[in-house]
Design brief:
Distance between the termini: 44 Å
Strand order of the largest sheet: 2-1-6-7
Helix content: 10-25%
Order of helices and strands: EEEEHEEEEHEEHHH
Low-confidence stretches: 1-48
Largest sheet: 4 strands, antiparallel
Shape: elongated
Number of helices: 5
Strand content: 15-25%
Mean pLDDT: 76
Length: 223
């Protein structure tokens, strides 16, 4: 396999039948990293190390720009080479993935070419990541940087593990509060506790690291 494209001069080509000419199974891919146009990184299992680009996540948007999910980079590249999605935001720091027939830089955001109907979504699951996003990574009691999750009504006193009873909390407040009620401490919450809603919250509930280019599509909850 020849490296015909450099990391600084690449283009996405219309994929041809990569399974012809003696190639069977999945497309044979190589990765060219910035500043190393002649050194290829193995892309699939069977090698000793998993390439870093495989671990990247790419935001997938519906044709309406509604956020759908965070895809593994490999899946995003497959959608693009099959003509099912287009790049919305490039990532200058991302590697270039290429084969004999095409070359593309791993993007940060892609958009489907055809509309996908999203089924009715039930209540957003409460995860640590989603809770931190809802409370903007600030302690619900003092406003300091949040480090833990606290139950407003302690579980030992009948409190549930739900959006309406859990808050982001700093370590000092968590320690001071212990198993006490807010009324016993004279504390108040900085904001009312409501479950979040919106198409982007399901993604926030399952994704810890967000690329800066995703923010315009994820609403206020990602700020």
């Amino acid at each position: 396999m020849k490296n015909r494209h450099s990391a600084r001069a690449h283009r996405q080509l219309v994929p041809t039948d990569a399974r012809s000419a003696g190639v069977s199974g999945a497309f044979a891919l190589q990765v060219i990293t910035e500043g190393s146009a002649h050194s290829a990184e193995p892309s699939f299992p069977g090698e000793n190390a998993v390439p870093l680009w495989i671990k990247r996540r790419v935001l997938l948007l519906n044709v309406t720009y509604e956020p759908l999910t965070a895809l593994p980079a490999r899946r995003a590249v497959v959608l693009m080479t099959c003509g099912k999605a287009d790049t919305v935001h490039e990532d200058p720091q991302a590697p270039v993935v290429h084969s004999e027939q095409w070359s593309v830089q791993v993007p940060s955001v892609i958009r489907l070419r055809n509309y996908v109907r999203v089924p009715y979504r039930a209540r957003v699951p409460m995860t640590r990541a989603a809770l931190m996003h809802r409370d903007r990574f600030r302690c619900a009691y003092c406003g300091a940087k949040a480090e833990t999750v606290d139950h407003v009504v302690p579980r030992s006193r009948g409190g549930g593990h739900s959006w309406e009873n859990c808050v982001a909390c700093c370590a000092p407040c968590n320690h001071r509060k212990a198993d006490k009620l807010l009324s016993e401490l004279g504390w108040t919450l900085r904001a009312s506790l409501v479950p979040p809603s919106g198409p982007h919250w399901r993604l926030l509930a399952s994704t810890k690291d967000l690329h800066p280019s995703w923010m315009p599509y994820l609403g206020e909850g990602a700020a």
